[in-house]
Amino acid sequence: MLFGNFRLWRTNRGNLGGGAGLGYRFYNYDSDRIFGASFYYDRDDSTNKIFQQLALNVETMGRYWDANGNFYLPIGNRRQELSLDFNEGSQRFSEFNVLYDQTRTLGTAMRGFDAEIGVPIYGELAQQFQARAYAGTYGFQASESEDVWGWRGRLQAYPLPNVLTELSITSDDTFNTNVFFNVTWTFAGRPEWNEMEKSTQMYRMAERVRKNYNVVIEQKKVVDSGLVAINPDTGLPWTISHVDSYAAPGGTGTVLDPYQTIPDAQAGPDRDIIFTHAGSFYDNAAPITLTAGERVLGEGQGVDHFINISGFGPKLLPNSPAYGDPLRPDSFVRPTFNDTVGDGVILASDSEFSGFILNDPTGRGVVGIGVSETTVNYVDVNNAVGEGIYLSSVSGSLDFESTNVTNSTGDAFVVDGGDALVRFDTGTIENTDAGRAVLIQNTTGGSINMTGSSVTDTNSQGVLINNISGGAVLDNVTITGSTNEGIHVTGGSANAVVTFRNTAQAATIIDSATDASIFVEDYLGVYQMQDINILNRNGTGILVENLTGNIAVVGNTTITNGVSAATDHGIDINNTSGNISFGGSLGITGSNGEGISFNNGGNTGTFSVSGTTTISGTAN
């Protein structure tokens, strides 16, 4: 019988493989035995790489014993790289470079054979299902690989006509022990073979050929150690200038011979990164002035810096050798500048300044004038004499992450002019001095997005958003004891959108403001807030004058009076043609003025409350 054999299979991960073969089986009536041989081409994609082989099968099947053997010969590309993995945590500094390790998984197609001999299992039940047991061996070899020798066993039976079940086990030192279960439903065969009694072995002419479905592939892991990290943008190694305040003067900038100061590194050879070691401190230093494209990083606990390594993407920069050394003072603390004479740091376009503490600069903390595409992460500005962060006429994207401003004498966070997309994420503004917590003014577009951060203003001047054309989003705002308005939004264009969110607290809180808690005047854009809680007011709770835009409160609004029993109204609307809506409940408690007043007239817009309105303890 001449036959063809075609196989196609799919792995659980969706990889395909298969084979095609041509064979011949002959039934010898005298010996009641089948003899056969077949030749195959196999293709295996189970490792995400294509391996190929030729296979030869020889077999004989009889009443009292069977024998089966296969010979496998790989063709084509026999050794291929199956995967390449970055060894996380292997990063380390060496001289001016960053080294790392990688692991390559190599797959090698192996040539070899397998063979087995089988006999019937005696017993009435076993004979009823034509049960047989097989035992055998196998061996595979490949250049530069250890030889594989193992044993195999197999049980087979026919629980239903033309349905063959098999349970197999293989074991060796390379592939370990594996168990397989196989079910074969045979459709082929001449009718007389299926109808005849099993008095001869001819009914087995249509049994499948026993051979490996897969190409035998040895997988070996190879660790490549001490590779130099390559910058994919330049195709050159990353270069690092190291800085440490404890270093002796005249260093070369290597990890073990660092510069003493950042200006020393800036004056040295041009390198990709200036990396200042944890525990470094500088008193009464001059301002740090960045140049375009410069990346100045400080090391410290909780500070993560990344570089793109060719072939692997962003990977964490390692720590310096002295990081966490118990013999080094403050070995986990970010580099710290105390009493900088002037501004703490002056940004440049396409630059990054991350991982530093700026204490008591005699000028401003972080300054960016006319810059774009700038990053500031993990920077603390404490007690600046001027503004904490001052951005003027900026454009492009400016990213601030985990940056905190505390107790600036001037305004804490200022954006004045420009059309930049400013992102201030997971940072804090804590203002207890005379200036404003946030001042955003004169922008011509773009947006200032502080979602995920918090603003806490105590006994200062609150928040002022003045004459903007673009967006401003503030989050988690708490203003207590403002000497001015709590929140003041004024002027601007119809394109302005001002939003106050509460992603980490129940409501925007304004407590004990001297003037109006919220004052919106001469505003053309959209002003929207989530829940509002106005406490202990000394002036109007919400004062709106000359609004031509729209105000929307999403959530509940609570306005309460303090012991001062303010004579101003809870809500006072004047000369407004825009629309004002409260999406939740509105509660106003205690006022010597009116709960809601439209008395000054000139109002042509709409005022609506979707929820319950409660006004109690007011004069009118």
Compose a concise summary of this entry.
The protein is mostly beta strands.
Describe the structure.
By secondary structure, the chain is mainly β. The chain has three domains: 2-81 and 107-219, Porin (Beta Barrel); 229-376, no CATH class; 411-620, Pectate Lyase C-like (3 Solenoid), CATH 2.160.20. 3% of the residues lie in helices and 52% in strands. The chain has three helices and 54 strands. The strands form five sheets. The chain has a 36-stranded parallel sheet that branches. Strand 7 (92-94) and strand 8 (97-109) form a beta hairpin. The mean pLDDT is 93.
Q: Which descriptors would you attach to this protein?
A:
elongated; 52% strand; Porin; 620 residues; 54 strands; 10-stranded antiparallel beta sheet; 3 helices; Pectate Lyase C-like; 3 domains; mainly beta
Number of domains: 3
Q: How would a textbook summarize the main sheet?
A: 36 strands, parallel
Helical residues, percent: under 10%
What is the correct CATH architecture of the largest domain?
3 Solenoid
Rg over alpha carbons: 39 Å
The shape is elongated
Distance from N terminus to C terminus (CA atoms, Å) equals 107 Å
| Percent in strands | over 45%
Low-confidence stretches: none
**CATH fold naming of the largest domain:** Pectate Lyase C-like
Structural class: mainly beta
CATH class label of the largest domain: Mainly Beta
Helix tally equals: 3
Mean pLDDT: 93
Overall strand count: 54
